[in-house]
Amino acid sequence: MKEYTYMKCAPPTPKFLIWFVGSTIWGAIGIVACAVPLDKPSSVPPAPEALPDKDFNHPPVKPHDPTAAYFKFDQLEYNYRVPGEFVHRLVGDQYGFESLSFIITETHVGGGPGLHVHTTEEAHVLLEGTARYRIGDKTFTVDAPYVARVPAGVPHTFMNVGHKTFNMIAVFPTNHLEGKRIGPNPLIPAR
């Protein structure tokens, strides 16, 4: 028969016992709290938001003062372009800018504007996401962060080819934004 020897250990200190019991209780509370559903059961994924199936143009919801130091998005024109591009538009001469206009998008995956052209150059600023572009005869894909240069009078468009909705800012060096839609977005497969 084998003989075993045992080490003698000091009894746990009161501080250790308090720490051990406290962390066990907090761990149990954390497990129970994580198991309790809040609004929806965690096993059910949220339903995807349905996007409009028709373009729309809405004037600003609230009035604005062109001499104000800032403008909220509900004071800007609000548009939608199928498939998946919401736009807030600030036309400079209506908001007190001498030589600037902006378009701010919420572009959903697979969305983008139709092929179009502007009378002035523009810069697209994207901080997060991935876009595929057609500018003139060039087609390319770029990951954010970046600034894309679009020359005046050149047909162009883009498409969100990333994995989530992105917000892009298009900046124009004019206080009167003019553009013309040429046709559908050639980057988006026909439905």
Description:
The protein is mainly β and 191 residues long. It has a domain at 56-183: Jelly Rolls (Sandwich). The protein is built from 1 helix and 12 strands. The strands form 3 sheets. Strands 1-2-3-4-11-6-9 form a 7-stranded antiparallel beta sheet, with no helix packed on it. Strands 8-7-10 form a 3-stranded antiparallel beta sheet, with no helix packed on it. The N and C termini lie far apart (82 Å).
Summarize the structure.
The protein is mainly β.
Overall body shape = globular
* CATH level 1 class label of one domain: Mainly Beta
Helical/strand content category: mainly beta
Separation, N- and C-terminal Cα atoms = 82 Å
Q: In percent, how much strand structure appears in the residues?
A: 25-35%
- Mean of residue pLDDT values: 84
Query: Could you state the order of secondary-structure elements as H and E?
Result: HEEEEEEEEEEEE
Q: What's the CATH architecture name of one domain?
A: Sandwich
